[in-house]
Structure formats: structure tokens, C-alpha cells
Design brief:
Blueprint (H helix, E strand, L loop, with lengths): L1 H23 L5 H16 L3 H28 L5 H18 L2 H15 L10
Helix pairs in contact: 2-3, 2-5, 3-4
């Protein structure tokens, strides 16, 4: 009887751990990523309606292109080329520079951009 309870507890623990791990691995869709970015950018930079619309479009283009690079790399079985991602970021920044004022762009690069990057979990080194 004791071994059955122990096995049951171990099974429940394993299923719970697997479920939590799987949730962390889901990628957000492009609209979800754009919304998250806009939720951080709009209040931080005090964007007006026109700037919000143009910024939303710039990030949608950026995330769609980024998704395409990931999918192409996955289908070819190769790692994505870092220089292509840098080019995408430079293109996005060039668009944003025409949308934002100089002060807004500086604040975006120095304060907001870092918060848009996905947070990586630190692994315990025990």
C-alpha cells in the first residue's frame, strides 16, 4: 500500500512538472508580441495616436520577418543567421527613428528596448 501511494505521488509530481515546463515553452503569436511591446512603449514614450499606429505597424513587420527567419531555419535544419536578425533590428530602428522624436528614440534605445527582449530563465548550478 505504501509503495502504491509513493508511486501515485511521484506520478502526480511528474505530470505537474511536465505541464509547467510545457507552458513555459509556448511561443507567443505576432499579435501577442506586438501588444506586449506596445503596452510597454506607449506609456513610456507618451506616444500619440498616429505614433502608436505607425509603431504598431513597424513592430508587426519586424516580428513577422523574425518569425519567417525562424521558420526558414527550422525547415532547413540550420541555425538562424545572426546577421539577418541584426539587419531586421536595424530596419525596425530606422522606421522607429522616423516615427519618434529624438528624445523618444533615445529613451526607447536606452530604457525601453531592453525590456522588450525575452527574459531568459537562469538555471541553478547546484
Amino acid at each position: 500500500m505504501k509503495t502504491k501511494i509513493t508511486m501515485l505521488v511521484a506520478l502526480i509530481l511528474m505530470v505537474t512538472t511536465t505541464g509547467i515546463y510545457a507552458q513555459g515553452m509556448q511561443r507567443r503569436t505576432v499579435p501577442e508580441r506586438v501588444k506586449a511591446a506596445m503596452d510597454k512603449i506607449t506609456p513610456a514614450l507618451n506616444l500619440d495616436a498616429s505614433q502608436q499606429s505607425k509603431t504598431d505597424s513597424a513592430f508587426t513587420d519586424y516580428y513577422n520577418a523574425q518569425m519567417k527567419l525562424f521558420q526558414d531555419a527550422r525547415s532547413s535544419g540550420e541555425r538562424p543567421d545572426r546577421s539577418q536578425f541584426q539587419k531586421l533590428t536595424e530596419d525596425r530602428d530606422a522606421k522607429l527613428k522616423t516615427i519618434f522624436t529624438d528624445d523618444q528614440y533615445t529613451k526607447f534605445k536606452n530604457e525601453v528596448e531592453e525590456s522588450l527582449r525575452p527574459q531568459r530563465r537562469q538555471q541553478n548550478s547546484n
